[in-house]
Amino acid sequence: MTVLRLGRRVRRIYLAAVRRRPNQLKIKVLDASTNISRQELLAPAPGLRIRFIRAKVLQDTSDGRHLWELFFGDAGNIITSPNRAIDILAVPDQGSDATRTFLREEGPRGKRDEVLSGRWRGTAPTSVHKIVVEYSEES
Questions:
Q1: How far apart (Å, rounded) are the C-alpha atoms in residues 113 and 50?
Q2: CA within 20 to 30 Å of 121's CA: 38, 78, 98, 101, which one?
Q3: Domains of the chain, start order
């Protein structure tokens, strides 16, 4: 406790101990499926939640333009659970697309033990795409 003296009055200043959560950015690179069914991208450690930071989808070979849905949970698609949606990426031919980058503790956060999922909307590509997911885990 710190004491600040102002003339005759005494003012005490209480400093609360603040414990910051460790912020460890994790990155996972995986191959996207070549069908339109839901793909589980990553699951949090037991008892933790995923805090989404950024995702990027890369198309190496010419395969046309495709749409990639990104959402929390194990629903079949974004339409089934629109409140768990994160983004829909339009991946150009031989290009890449990324979601916006969220700052620390500002990105979408899944529920405890909830997975991050993705799926192709419309027609699926014939070639494998790379997905780079940046995230952190918190309690």
A1: 8
A2: 101
A3: 21-138 (2.60.120.340)
- Distance in angstroms (rounded) separating the CA atoms of residues 37 and 42: 16
- Whether this prediction's pTM lies above 0.85 is answered by no
Contact 98, 49 (CB under 8 A): no
Sort strands 39-42 and 116-121 into parallel, antiparallel or unpaired. Answer: antiparallel
Neighbours of 130 (CB within 10 A): 14
Residue in the structure block whose two tokens are 């333009």: 65
- Tokens 């912020």 belong to 23
Instruction: Tell the residue number behind the tokens 């899944």, with chain if given.
Output: 110
Q: Are the C-beta atoms of 54 and 98 separated by less than 8 Å?
A: yes
Backbone angles phi, psi at 60, to 5 degrees: -85, -40
Residue 114 CA to chain centroid, in angstroms?
12
Could you identify the residue written with the tokens 């890449």? 96
DSSP secondary structure letter of residue 34:
S
Q: CA triplet 78, 105, 118: central angle to 5 degrees?
A: 25
